[in-house]
Amino acid sequence: SQALIVPFDPSAPSQAVAGVLPLQLWSLTPSGDKAPKAGTTATFYNTPAGKTTTISSVGDGFAAKASEVKRELVRKSVGAAVKELKAFEGVKEVVVDASLDPHAAAVAAHLALYKFTLKTSGGASPFDPRNTEPAKDKIAFAPVEASAEWDRGVVYAQSQNLARTLAEYPANMITPTAFTERVRKEFEGIANVEIIVRDEAWAAEKGMNVFLSVTHGTSEPAKFLEIIYKGAADKTAAPLAFVGKGITFDSGGISLKPGAGMKLMRGDMGGAAAVVSAGLAIAKLQLPCDVATINLVVTTPLTENMPGPSATKPGDM
Q1: Banded pLDDT at 193 (limits 50, 70, 90)
Q2: Is 134:165 a contact under the CB 8 Å cutoff?
Q3: N or C: which end of the chain has fewer CB within 10 A?
Q4: Among 16-30, 142-156, 207-221, which is the least confidently predicted range?
Q5: CATH number for the domain formed by residue range(s) 2-159
Q6: Rounded to whole angstroms, how far apart are CA atoms 151 and 218?
Q7: DSSP label of 184
Q8: What separation in angstroms does the CA of 195 have from each of 169, 177, 300?
């Protein structure tokens, strides 16, 4: 079924959105005589006929707020509405009134929908890295009125969600090799992008001995990932550079970390996840669109830090 999300300013004159008057609906709730705080929601069924509508407040006095505050209030409002609607199994399509801030609304909707899990009651998880087809969202979003800002917001959110996914994978699913394969897949088909995956022999040739010393205790081959994006008219112009730490599991090596919380050390590649995902958004959107396109280089050394028989020992030179 289809649902509608309408963010509303309780202090502004009510305007109909797809046949819905949010202030009128709010007046029907038990708290209808009070101005709701930002993120307060109310859901109405068969309103309009055959649809579910969730109204969500952006807070009193929205119009007088600074632009960045407004943007955050829209995110909070739309995000709260999505969290409420995603509890309903029958809702598969949601139309969002994004008129207050299309970019913020798109970002909020897709971030709020995200929930990482590898557990399923049947079939493969949409996050299973062995899937050959891209995962489909539980809910498909669309704005009441299409806009370039909404589309940009979707890319922002999808890139952030990629970073979240990469950082959440257990270490056996996001080895250095698996990480680089996933990156190739994500950047596939994007113009002006070159993906280069270097091996340990290349790193040794370049004298990257500190990096290689971390690899001694693991059987997983280390990788050095480069993403080169040439979006500027002058392909030789100095690029913007992003560097992210890519220790896909950091046990501490010989200096073993405490066992409690050890599984969280899969997150030591969060820097790599962040810069790769930022690079993906830049390449997709040709950022910064309002100034000029840019050249970009993203680099990340990828390895595990494990206490194997050949692991680097404290004091080794």
Answers
A1: very high
A2: no
A3: C
A4: 16-30
A5: 3.40.220.10
A6: 42
A7: H
A8: 22, 13, 12
Give the residue carrying structure tokens 């008129």.
Answer: 99
C-beta of residue 96 within 8 angstroms of C-beta of residue 143: yes
Q: Which two tokens stand for residue 132?
A: 């050959």
Is the distance from CB of 296 to CB of 229 less than 8 angstroms? yes
> Could you say which DSSP state residue 81 is in?
H
User: Helices (DSSP H) in 86-208: which residue ranges?
Assistant: 102-113, 148-168, 176-187, 200-205
Q: Smallest Cα–Cα separation from 22: which of 123, 144, 127?
A: 144
Residue with tokens 């407004």: 70
- The pTM of this model reads 0.91
Strand partners, 53: 4, 44
The domain made up of 170-305 is a member of CATH 3.40.630.10: yes
304 neighbors 218 (Cβ within 8 angstroms): yes
Element holding 8 (H helix, E strand): strand 2-8
> How is the beta sheet containing 52-57 ordered, strand by strand?
41-45, 52-57, 2-8, 93-96, 140-143
Going from the C-alpha of 57 to that of each of 8, 60, 183, 287, the distances in angstroms are: 5, 8, 38, 32
Cβ count near 68 (within 10 Å):
9
52-61, 126-135, 220-229, 292-301: which range is least confident on average? 126-135
Q: What pLDDT is recorded for position 136?
A: 74
- Collapse the DSSP code of 21 into the 3-class scheme (helix H, G, I; strand E, B; otherwise coil) and give the result: coil
Section 170-199 average pLDDT: 95
Beta-strand relationship, 295-305 and 240-243: parallel
Work out the end-to-end distance of the chain between its first and last CA atoms, rounded to an integer number of angstroms: 64
Contact assessment for residue 314 and residue 213, using Cβ atoms and an 8 Å cutoff: no
Q: Which of 174, 287, 190 is nearest to 223 (CA)?
A: 174
Distance CA 15, CA 144 (A): 14
The per-residue pLDDT for 246 is: 96
Q: Which of 88, 87, 77 is nearest to 7 (CA)?
A: 77
